[in-house]
Every structure is written in structure tokens, then in C-alpha cells.
Amino acid sequence: MLDLAAASTESILHEVARDDLRPSRLEAEAAVRMLIRWAGDDPARVGLQDTPARVVRAYEEWFGGYWRDPVKILGRRFERSGYDDFILLRDIPVQSVCEHHMAAIQGVAHVAYLPGENVVGISKLARLVDAYARRLQIQERLTAEIADTLQHALQARGVGVVIRASHGCMTTRGVHAHGAAMVTRRLLGECAHEPYRSDILKALSASA
Ligand SMILES: Nc1nc2c(ncn2[C@@H]2O[C@H](COP(=O)(O)OP(=O)(O)OP(=O)(O)O)[C@@H](O)[C@H]2O)c(=O)[nH]1
Ligand SMILES: [Zn+2]
């Protein structure tokens, strides 16, 4: 498991991409035309004429996470109102892209935390997963980033994250291991220790 214990909070808190460093849309479309030629087809062919613009729009969705600030997503807090056990959101869809092949990673995340003083709206856990998933990732880092951000931003007493995903680069090419799925997890704070550890792992792993 990737250990991010030494990573500074700063590197986690400032992960929003910069507009001034971004190539233009026209440059991005030209790159797609180049890849079409590399694949062996003719980008001027009628059926492919609109493809570069479509691909660039699709990239805006698949990589939209670079333009979202995960900490801001958790900005609105509510009092936990006397509730002091863990909160768990299961089966959050994960749609990501592997940083080695730029192939799809698809699966689910289960996210749990033990609240400190505050809780967040439950949808924000799914938004947090999505903000980190829609970037070039390896599953280990995706898991660690979700867990660490939740822990630091919310000052949670503990956090647990489990992700189960299949990697297109393993199923559609290369080793062609159809059906293989990778499982990663990260437990922090009180969730890493009994009495919560066993409960959390049982709850997180039931469908992982
Ligand atoms: N640990 C980890 N590995 C990943 C992830 N996504 C893809 N990979 C792996 O990244 C590795 C890249 O290995 P390379 O040997 O450089 O690439 P390759 O020659 O295309 O490897 P093959 O996929 O085995 O054909 C492959 O083993 C992939 O299965 C991930 O999220 N985590
Ligand atoms: Zn890959």
C-alpha cells in the first residue's frame, strides 16, 4: 500500500490545474488528429472530421478533476448533532484513467469516516472521489488522496477507503486478464485501530 504519511498537506490542498499553463483547444484538437494518423486512419475522412473536437470535449469530462479543488468540496460543514459512530457511503462509482496507458479504470469506492466536530453532506464524499478519479491516476494514489484529504480537511477522528476497480489496460490489451479487479484500501486514525478497525473493514469490504 502506498504510504502517504510523509506527504505534506500542502501538496494535497493545492491540486487545481492552471489555465495559463493549458494548451489551447485548437492545439489539443491537432494532437488528436496526429494520434488518428498514428493509428492508421485519415483525420480528413468525413466520419472523423468532428472527432478531434469531440475527443477534446470528452477529455474535459474525463479529466475534469484537475479543475476541482477537493478541499473546497468539503467546505460546507454541519454539526454532527450527537452522532458519534462512523459514517459510510458505499458503491460510489469510480471512473478514472490509468496514468501508464491512459486506459479506463472503472469500479467502486466505499468511503467511511469517524466525524470529529463536523460532518459533511453525504454527496460530498462522492464528489471527493470523483474529483480525484477524473485525473490520470494509479489506484493506490487515488485511494490515498481520498483518504488523506478527508482526514485533514474534516479533522476526522478516522477514515477508511476501499476501492475495487478493473483496469482497461489489463483487460482490453496486454495480459488480457478479463474480470481481474484490483482492491486497495487505506485506514487512518481511529479507523486503523480496534474497536473500529474490524467493524470498518467488514462494512467496507462486504461488496469490495
Ligand atoms: N500498481 C498499479 N499498476 C497499474 C495501475 N494501472 C495500471 N497499472 C500497471 O502499470 C504497469 C505498467 O507496466 P509497464 O511494464 O511499464 O507497461 P506495459 O509494457 O504496457 O505492461 P503490460 O500491461 O504488462 O503489457 C502494468 O503492469 C499495468 O498493469 C495501477 O493503478 N496501479
Ligand atoms: Zn494502465
Automatic annotation (TrEMBL):
Catalytic activity: GTP + H2O = 7,8-dihydroneopterin 3'-triphosphate + formate + H(+)
Gene3D superfamilies: 1.10.286.10, 3.30.1130.10
InterPro entries named among the record's database cross-references: GTP-CH-I_C/QueF, GTP-CH-I_N, GTP_CycHdrlase_I, GTP_CycHdrlase_I_CS, GTP_CycHdrlase_I_dom
Pathway named in the protein's UniProt entry: Cofactor biosynthesis; 7,8-dihydroneopterin triphosphate biosynthesis; 7,8-dihydroneopterin triphosphate from GTP: step 1/1
Keywords: GTP-binding, Hydrolase, Metal-binding, Nucleotide-binding, One-carbon metabolism, Zinc
Residues of the GTP cyclohydrolase I domain: 29-195
Coiled coil: none
Short name of any one Pfam family annotated for the protein: GTP_cyclohydroI
Group of enzyme by EC: hydrolase
Residues bound to Zn(2+): C98, H101, C169
EC number: 3.5.4.16
Transmembrane segments: none
Self-association state and partner proteins as the record states: Homopolymer.
Family note: Belongs to the GTP cyclohydrolase I family.
HAMAP family: FolE
Annotated protein name in UniProt: GTP cyclohydrolase 1
Source species: Thermomonas beijingensis
Top-level taxonomy: Bacteria, Pseudomonadati, Pseudomonadota, Gammaproteobacteria, Lysobacterales
Gene designation: folE
